[in-house]
Amino acid sequence: MDKRRITYKDEGDGFQCDALAQDGWTHQVYFRNEPAPAQYLRMGLSPLHARVMWLFDCVQHKWHVCGLDNLYNSAKFCRTSYVQNKVLINGVTRVGGRGLPSSVLQQPITNKKEQMAARGTVKAAVLKGDAECPNLVATSVYDTKPVHFLSTVCESIKWIVKERPVFNVDSGRVEKIRFLRLNVNDFYNHAMGNVDVSDQLRNTYRFDHWLRKRKWWWSILFWWIGVMLVNAYVYYILVNLAAGVKRKDLLSHQDFRKAVALSWINQPLYWTPQKQPTM
To answer: Which residues are 68's β-sheet partners?
Structure first.
């Protein structure tokens, strides 16, 4: 089935895929209407994890750090990613059936007084005796509710001091406050690869937002065009910054899209000709 009803988003009918992204660049996707890779299903992985393992097969460099949300992460998947592709996993993990040891599990507390007393409680466990995956760490910390992590990246567990600007109603101005955050949580927040940036950039100047798609493949076609435009913009920024061009001298996202659109409309007029090499 190439088109499916998506009831939990305002966009309506469309398609779903798993994506491997970094800093707004979409590297590879696996459409969910396609059968999951049989080689990983035979290893006992779920269809979801089998599709993500196929995405990891596309990663050329070893020891790439991949951040995952709780839908994807599990102890078995962390181990398989480490053994098969040398991809390091870090992410929030659901409690049920995900391989978290009972020693790190924390239950939600509804009583406010007991909740405040439990806040900041940290539990941790390290996998021992597995030579093929020696660095699997499970942690949990009680914030406003318990949050559980699985990681093959974690090297230490400690509190770090952070600062955040907050408006003070008494002084009437913004002041910095200091607070503690577990380093595992902080690394997760800053090592997710900005996976939402690609969707944010694509939706900012999305040209098919109100276009009714009477053909199922229109959704995929327009989505791919949007992804390629975002990839082109991200690459444009990276190449120019690497060449020493200052960020303020680069085109904005809007101007970049406008330049591309005009070149599609009238290439001889708007497209900058390439300089011919001199002999």
So the answer is: 91
- In the structure encoding, which two tokens stand for residue 136, read together? 């699997």
Mean pLDDT of the chain: 87
**pLDDT tens readout for residues 18-70:** 888 888 888 899 988 889 999 999 999 999 999 999 999 998 888 988 888 88
* 223 Cβ contact list (under 8 Å, min separation 6): 15, 202
First-to-last alpha carbon distance for the chain, in angstroms, is 56
The structure's pTM equals 0.80
Q: Is the pLDDT of residue 212 over 80?
A: no
C-alpha closest to that of 147 among 180, 112, 182: 182
- From residue 132, alpha-carbon distances to 65, 79, 82, 135, 149 in Å are 18, 8, 8, 9, 20
Question: What one-character-per-residue DSSP string does 84-150 give?
Answer: HH--EEEEE--STTS---GGG-------HHHHHHHTT-EEEEE--S-TTSTT-EEEEEESSSEEEEE
